[in-house]
Amino acid sequence: LGADHPATLRSVGNLATLLQSQGKYNESETMHRRALEGSEKILGADHPDTLTSVGGLATVLQDQGKYNESETMHRRALEGSERILGPDHPDTLTSANDLGILLRNQGNYSESEMMNRRALGGYERIHGLDHPYTLTS
Question: Signal peptide position in this chain (predicted)?
Answer without folding.
Answer: none
